[in-house]
Amino acid sequence: MAAEALAADEVALALVPEFARLPEFEENAATFGENALGKALHYSHFCDGLVFADDSGLVVPALDGAPGVHSARYAGAGASNEQRIGKLLAEMHELRGSERAAYFVCVIAAVRGGRGTAIVSGRVDGVILEAARGLGGFGYDPVFYFAALGKTFAEMHGDEKNRVSHRGKAFARLLGAVAGDRVAE
Predict the structure, then answer these.
(1) What angle do CA 15, 19, 20 make, to 5 degrees?
(2) Facing residues of 111 across strands?
(3) Which residue of 17, 56, 173, 175 could cross-link 106, Cys pair, CB 3.0 to 4.6 Å?
(4) Residues 6 or more apart in contact with residue 82 via CB below 8 angstroms
(5) What average pLDDT does the chain have?
(6) Considering 9, 48, 54, 55, which one is annotated as catalytic?
(7) In what order do the strands lie in the sheet with 50-59?
């Protein structure tokens, strides 16, 4: 989900200049917060102003928190969304009822001049279905069921998902924390 869709008219966003040419930040920390802050600090060395970065993922308590910070690499480097979902469903095949509880988490860190100015988070609770539903979204969205709306994240329209998602909640908190600043993402 693009930050522009979440920002609406609240804050002016700009990409970090020459982002594709910059050295990549290696996300290898144990927590979403450490990864988000590490990325924001890393990229803040390449531009002025307020820089924000996020880290997010799916947490399944019955799997000891997996996929967690490894959500994007859960089925190995370069795996597709379908492969990640396949691995998750295979590992959960014997789980029933409350054992299928899961949540998405997003942590966003904002940095100015090499110093953290805000770290915010958002969480949304749901259940992992036994089969994918819906064509939208990305990642684990097709198997993440949000009971309050009776849909998976992949069945929701963008605006609808932005209102209830972990990323939408975290970004709203970020906007409250940095109101009036120009933000680079």
Answers:
(1) 135
(2) 51, 116
(3) 56
(4) none
(5) 90
(6) 55
(7) 13-14, 183-184, 50-59, 101-112, 115-128, 144-146, 151-152
- 150: alpha, beta or left, given left = phi > 0 and alpha = psi -120 to 50? left
Give the Cα separation of 128 and 144 in Å (integer): 5
Tens-digit pLDDT profile for residues 126-158:
999 999 999 998 999 999 999 999 999 999 999
Q: What are phi and psi of 128, to 5 degrees?
A: -85, 120
What percentage of the chain reaches a pLDDT higher than 90? 74
| The pairing of beta strand 183-184 with beta strand 50-59 | parallel
Q: Which amino acid is at 85?
A: I
Of 11, 51, 55, which Cα lies nearest the Cα of 185? 51
Task: Specify the CATH number of the domain 3-17+45-184.
Answer: 3.90.950.10
